[in-house]
């Protein structure tokens, strides 16, 4: 569903991505995992056409996302927070997105109920807590019933119940035939959701493969241990 080949991106003196090649398998939850500043968000921005790579490419469903005839139905993303104006209500924000994406208006009410914002739908987004804004952003990502769901640090500001809800949402999405990418620096928290992992550090992919297979290969029992082992090996090679 998503793949890259030699994708590189520099911002001034910072090499955010360095020849990144990977494939996100369809029908699974892929964890794009690594510390803050590893290049995760940059890769997702390239995938969604929000930035252009300096070299290489990133594609979704076989083509550039900006070339998709119905992009909202191909991929939905929570990236860089919610784009709603603070004075806008959650309901108005989703209705605007639905209109732009030619999505039936009744989808909005169903989503607000699904993400737990039905009671706050007519409140201004500026008065939402961080957790509520995250839920609104996830609703926006789900609006077009996308085949690929991309969530960048979706559990920020969520309580334990909300975190469990995100993990359940990812599993339900793939169980229904979709594909998901979870980008996070919380490796222990991501453990509950992902079954394919891409570990990234300093703009380079350290490991890419099924979580259980990589854990067995490296003789570790958790994603945190797997990352430390891969990072140590990467450091030794330089």
UniProtKB/TrEMBL annotation:
GO terms for molecular function: ATP binding; ATP hydrolysis activity. InterPro entries: AAA+_ATPase, ABC_transporter-like_ATP-bd, ABC_transporter-like_CS, P-loop_NTPase. Gene3D superfamilies: P-loop containing nucleotide triphosphate hydrolases. Pfam families: ABC_tran. Keywords: ATP-binding, Nucleotide-binding, Transport. PANTHER family: ABC TRANSPORTER, ATP-BINDING PROTEIN (PTHR43335). This is ATP-binding cassette domain-containing protein. It comes from Actinospica durhamensis.
